[in-house]
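Format notes (please read before filing issues)

Several people have asked whether sequences and structure tokens are stored in separate files. They are not. Every record keeps both together, in the order shown below: the sequence lines, then the token lines. Line labels are part of the format and must not be stripped during preprocessing.
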Amino acid sequence: MIRTIFTPDSEQVTFPIPEKYIGAELEIIIFPIKDVSPVSAFVQKKPVFGCAKGKFKMANDFDAPIDDFMEYMQ
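Then the structure lines:
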């Protein structure tokens, strides 16, 4: 269900209400958020090439056969 209310400044606010709350007495509180655009909150930063450098180490014998799998490799 979509609910629409009007603020004291006569601005319209529309939001969904989960079905389990339909018919219940609700108190709706709206907090103004300043300096945040709706889009900027959801924009993900693009990774920078090389940003994970030095965070991972590979063992010198990473490609050596694993003893537990020897019976499958024969």
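For reference, the curators noted about this record: The two ends are 63 Å apart (CA to CA). The mean pLDDT is 78.
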